Amino acid sequence: MKVGYLRHSGTEKKKSDTQLAVLQLAGCDTCFVDDAQSKGEKLRVALNTLSAGDSFVVAKFDRLGKTIKGVVDLLNDLTARSITFVAVEDGVDTSTADGRYLVHIMTRLALMDKLLRYERTKVSLAIAKTKGRTGGRPQSLTQEKLTEAKKLIDGGMPVRAVAKIVGSSRATLYRVLGAKAVG
Fold first, then answer.
1. Which H, E and C letters describe 27-44, residue by residue?
2. Is the pLDDT of residue 173 over 80?
3. Which residue, 109, 120, 122, 180, is the most exposed by fewest CB within 10 angstroms?
């Protein structure tokens, strides 16, 4: 069985008709149409109708997903389920050696993209650190408030009352000052 899939935004009605014509010419038995409102729901339905030996057909690669990683994950899933993938206008058919090779290249590109993003993030964090910036959420208690809280707790005031005075939660006081310091 050949299952076709197309995706379009609300402003691309003409492109949708063109994609549908391409899928019908490719011999698709069923076609699923996703639009901006369905958020990929029809893609999930289409993928669930496929079984081993079937073909999943799109007009072009760019209609399949928004990220390289997403497309590669989908293609790997189809391969694992023994389902052929065809992108008609791009000339890709995973039942051929060339099609499988292209999927292999895309997998490598997705991995390279991930590694490049990781490297850029590391460099950006290092630069921010040299400028005195640290990551994470800012501390809710200043050193002065911590000192005040410690004195009040040591003086016998309940943690709940101290938390209100310094503008914090009881959990934060217990975590920052430690269980021994508080109790």
1. CCCEEEEECCCCCCHHHH
2. yes
3. 180
Nearest to 92 by CA among 77, 75, 107, 111: 75
What is the Cα–Cα distance from 120 to 157, expressed in whole angstroms?
Answer: 49
Average predicted confidence (pLDDT) for the chain: 82
Residue corresponding to tokens 């269980």: 179
Residues recognised as catalytic: 9
> Could you tell me which of 36, 21, 34, 29 has the C-alpha nearest to residue 3?
29
20/31 Cα distance (integer angstroms): 8
Angle (CA) 160-163-168 rounded to 5° is 135
Phi then psi for 144, rounded to 5 degrees?
-65, -45
- Smallest CA-to-CA distance from 35 within 11, 4, 8 is with 8
pLDDT tens digits along 31-46: 888 776 667 778 888 8
3-state DSSP call for residue 93?
strand
Beta-bridge mates of residue 7: 34
